[in-house]
Design a protein that fits this description.
Number of strands: 15
Order of helices and strands: EEEEHEHHEHHHHEEEEEHEHEHHEE
Largest sheet: 7 strands, mixed
Radius of gyration: 20 Å
Bound molecules: zinc ion
Low-confidence stretches: none
Helix content: 25-40%
Mean pLDDT: 95
Oligomer: single chain
CATH architecture of the largest domain: 4-Layer Sandwich
CATH class of the largest domain: Alpha Beta
């Protein structure tokens, strides 16, 4: 059953029975003529049935519902090809829209698994393009998307919502901010218990720094209610932001010492395999997909340590090696 979190704004819980995140919280702004759905779900029958049944219960027609995507990830964007009707607008940030369009290109998936080479992942641990969890859950075809930028204002139901920059978890994640009620619809930027994944999308940007700067920006905003896309509500927003900042600071320290202890230039894979990942699992115990996330996240941290002047890096073939002293 949908829960009314603000007058005319509903939280729609969409379960995932075959995905570790177990579900998503979408949000629906019900207006007089047009409605706005914030995020969708995976591209499958279960998610489609659940979302359509929420809309039916609320007497909302899909034809009258525009869609706002907080970010490109397929648990948020995958269902757009099933939901988009001719009259619906689909909004996403200018940055993440490019990635959503690219989901239809085989080159995108080849490029995504290029991370294996950057990280020096041996073949037996390397994720293949079509094995990526996003591949089977992506939208079925390309959808026209209207770009939004931080600072844009969208009329959602009776609310004027400002598009807010929450970049880091993806390069162009955005939220919706309502200053009068102190409400921030924040996608995957800050989650209770789950640490949002930081991936190395390209090597020319420091995505971990981008994420931490977005955390600090949210901390400086007068947020009274944070509406996240996964998990239980946050009892203490500032405390959770501090926890996330500390988590990454601690992980940077661990990775810096692993590179120092190696005593020779090492690729991200060699560091990732000695880090303790979620729930205390060892690298050898996690799936190939989780190894891909772990290596990509390790690369983002090592890249940050290079930006901070704490490590050096150099390319050997297509792989980036990190060392404590200048090579
Ligand atoms: Zn996400």
């Amino acid at each position: 059953m949908a829960k009314e979190i603000l007058p005319g704004v509903f939280q729609l819980d969409v379960p995932f029975s075959r995905h570790p995140l177990r579900g998503i919280h979408d949000y629906l702004f019900v207006g007089r003529e047009r409605h706005l759905l914030v995020d969708t779900a995976l591209n499958d029958d279960e998610c489609e049935a659940s979302l359509l049944s929420h809309l039916r219960d609320l007497g909302v027609r899909l034809e009258d519902t525009d869609i706002f995507l907080t970010h490109m990830h397929v648990d948020h964007s995958g269902l757009i090809s099933r939901l988009k009707r001719e009259a619906n607008k689909v909004y996403a940030s200018a940055v993440d829209r490019v990635y959503i369009d690219a989901f239809q290109s085989p080159n995108h998936w080849k490029w995504l698994t290029q991370t294996n080479v950057w990280c020096g992942v041996p073949d037996e641990h390397a994720l293949k393009p079509e094995e990526h969890v996003a591949y089977s859950n992506r939208p079925s075809f390309s959808i026209p998307i209207q770009e939004v930028r931080p600072g844009d204002v969208l009329l959602c139901g009776g609310y004027e919502m400002e598009v807010t920059d929450l970049a880091g978890h993806t390069p162009g994640q955005v939220g919706l901010w309502h200053a009068e009620t102190g409400s921030l619809f924040s996608g995957d930027h800050i989650l209770n218990k789950i640490t949002p994944n930081i991936t190395t999308w390209t090597l020319d940007r420091d995505y971990l720094e981008m994420f931490c700067e977005s955390l600090k920006r949210v901390k400086s905003m007068p947020v009274r209610c944070l509406y996240a896309a996964h998990g239980a509500p946050l009892p203490h927003l500032h405390g959770r932001i501090d926890e996330l900042l500390k988590h990454h600071a601690d992980r940077l320290a661990v990775m810096e010492s692993l590179v120092r202890e190696a005593g020779r230039p090492v690729p991200a894979f060699d560091v990732a395999k000695d880090v303790e990942w979620s729930r205390g699992e060892k690298f050898t115990e996690i799936t190939i997909q989780q190894k891909w996330f772990a290596c990509s996240e390790t690369l983002a941290h090592l890249r940050r340590l290079v930006s901070q002047g704490k490590l050096y890096s150099r390319w050997v073939g297509g792989t980036l090696y990190f060392s404590k002293s200048e090579p």
